[in-house]
Amino acid sequence: xxxxxxxxxxxxxxxxxxxxxxxxxxxxxxxxxxxxxxxxxxxxxxxxxxxxxxxxxxxxxxxxxxxxxxxxxxxxxxxxxxxxxxxxxxxxxxxxxxxxxxxxxxxxxxxxxxxxxxxxxxxxxxxxxxxxxxxxxxxxxxxxxxxxxxxxxx
Length: 154
Fold this sequence. Notes:
Blueprint: E1 14-18, E2 35-39, H1 42-111, H2 125-130, H3 134-145
Antiparallel strand pairs: 1-2
């Protein structure tokens, strides 16, 4: 019998569920199973299906909101990564010439030479005397011409 006709009135079927006996470990006494009757009538099933549908809709909406939040979180993480990598790339591209200029300025301040290409490649004391101002060059020439006479004796 696949289809029930509207003119047939049937009593709703009730099923009996048996709960297995529970054994108390302390007293080792078994408890008798309790029989629970559940209503499986079409009205009860319809009500259960409607409740299930409402809960499913609520869960679906929550999942949709969570999906949206996850999407925007992932998007923000990608934007942060792009900004970070872009900053490092710009630094690698633009900083070497600036650092080179700063290093050349530092060298020119420390050595007194404005053009680093004109620096003297030698390392002798006479070459160093040429780098000093004019009023100190005379004293430096005396030291470099006869270094043993100007050394103080102890």
